[in-house]
């Protein structure tokens, strides 16, 4: 059993008010502690805008000009001054304006311009009629367009700057860049932006019983599914990941591996070896080399999750049970990684849904995250069921689930039909379930 660390070993940068040596933290306390403790890495780099998805913006971006640059037509049709149309809905066509041409001269009063989607509106025109609604007539004096009544002033016109106004703050430093953010930045004409540097993460599994897939397995051994899980999660995250392999249940080896890893990484992430078994040396190694800021949560699964630091390198120790490893990563690893990469973080959205299950009685005092399966009821409304078996070793339940159902600490039971909080896995950036069923 690990002892609380010597307070004198606390790094000077660490604020002692966050020490929680002698009690189990709640979910909220643990997230708050992680957010308070984790500094953003220093260092930025410039990258092409189209290669920046998932990166964290390191500069504020202002619009250097209006988008769109000028008033443009939103449809193929005819452009005119609404005042002229109000006087007569038969307008001689005086010109033709294609998209991509320089801003045309002012439109002659009392006439219409043939115009196409995206073309700059001529000065004097403020309204566009869709071609499907109009009739073009050849007359002795040339082409005339007959526009139906009822068009409001400004119809089918896109205003200059209606998407982004020159000078506006388009994206703040700390934004996690999505394709639509990059489209906005591209619309400003920027080809490169500054982003925070990629994180350096070391990943390792622990335990003498763990073996890597691809080789033989003997009785008592377990294939290293957590490595597959975590490596896959990191493939979607802006980080360079080093695989440290499997640490044996040997105190000296674990300590040496963690010390070496901490010297060259921003984060060491382990799975297994966090609880109090005799072969569980990870926590002791972190205590000896650095400091644990939290261990033991009033949360199921994930109770023995630990978080700390070795020098400037952060440490997150996920429990070995695969369900606890994933839930721990999503609930605590994600805010940690967000903060470390300088990205703004918000708690995942909880959707209130009726429970399609019941829990007649439960142990209070800990928050529980169940595997939740969305179901559509006969009346078409949504509800959430729970995966039938709660075991923390069941990867099957993680695969069947669409997300997590959060049961609060004080709940003594859950009644079928009661509203529960459902967090879709998509809230954590995971893809939706797409299991082939036939
Ligand atoms: N006496 C107590 N025993 C346990 C406690 C406790 O508080 N007191 N907590 C239980 C809980 S909750 C969990 S979760 C586990 C976590 O234990 P560890 O983090 O120390 O993990 P291990 O003991 O190494 O392994 C637990 C379980 O997970 C399997 N495992 C481990 N690594 C992997 C991997 N890379 N891939 C797949 N599966 C893995 C391992 O074989 C074990 O079955 O402790 C409880 N016990
Ligand atoms: O983290 Mo353990 O059950 O809570 O698997």
Automatic annotation (TrEMBL):
It catalyses: adenylyl-molybdopterin + molybdate = Mo-molybdopterin + AMP + H(+). Its EC number is 2.10.1.1. SUPFAM superfamilies: MoeA C-terminal domain-like (SSF63867), MoeA N-terminal region -like (SSF63882), Molybdenum cofactor biosynthesis proteins (SSF53218). Residues 202-339 form the MoaB/Mog domain. GO terms for biological process: Mo-molybdopterin cofactor biosynthetic process. It is an enzyme of class 2 (transferase). Pathway: Cofactor biosynthesis; molybdopterin biosynthesis. Keywords: Magnesium, Metal-binding, Molybdenum, Molybdenum cofactor biosynthesis, Transferase. The keyword Metal-binding applies. The keyword Metal-binding applies. InterPro entries: MoaB/Mog-like_dom_sf, MoaB/Mog_dom, MoCF_biosynth_CS, MoeA-like, MoeA_C_domain_IV, MoeA_C_domain_IV_sf, MoeA_linker/N, MoeA_linker/N_sf. CDD domains: MoeA. It comes from the Bacteria. Its cofactor is Mg(2+). Pfam families: MoCF_biosynth (PF00994), MoeA_C (PF03454), MoeA_N (PF03453). One of its GO terms (cellular component) is cytosol. One of its GO terms (molecular function) is metal ion binding. Belongs to the MoeA family. Catalyzes the insertion of molybdate into adenylated molybdopterin with the concomitant release of AMP. This is Molybdopterin molybdenumtransferase. It comes from Methylobrevis pamukkalensis. The lineage of its organism: Bacteria, Pseudomonadati, Pseudomonadota, Alphaproteobacteria, Hyphomicrobiales. The gene is moeA_1.
